[in-house]
UniProtKB/TrEMBL annotation:
<dbReference type="InterPro" id="IPR010710">
    <property type="entry name" value="DUF1289"/>
</dbReference>
<protein>
    <recommendedName>
        <fullName>DUF1289 domain-containing protein</fullName>
    </recommendedName>
</protein>
<dbReference type="Pfam" id="PF06945">
    <property type="entry name" value="DUF1289"/>
</dbReference>
Length: 86
């Protein structure tokens, strides 16, 4: 299985109180994700990010774009399939 890709969907406009309008990450969160080496850590980060998006609202577009990115890179994530990170 391929490495868990970054949740970034290449929008990168930090206009929502320091959060990207594409993925909801802050600049420190983007930096943190890059430092995560283990897939279970990356999946847990994605799960946290999805919870953050739920609280903030207006991020329904992200799941579709990120799922497409994952399929293109042949990566399967339990959190996108309704499961939880290990």
């Amino acid at each position: 299985m391929a490495k868990t890709p970054s949740p970034c969907i290449d929008v990168c406009k930090f206009k929502r109180e320091g959060h990207c309008i594409g993925c909801s990450m802050t600049k420190p969160q983007k930096k943190m994700f890059k430092s995560l080496k283990k897939d279970d850590q990356r999946e847990a980060f994605i799960e946290m990010l999805m919870a953050q998006q739920e609280v903030m609202g207006r991020y329904r577009h992200w799941a579709v774009a990120y799922d497409k990115k994952c399929r293109k890179k042949n990566a399967k994530l339990r959190v996108l399939e309704g499961g939880r990170a290990a």
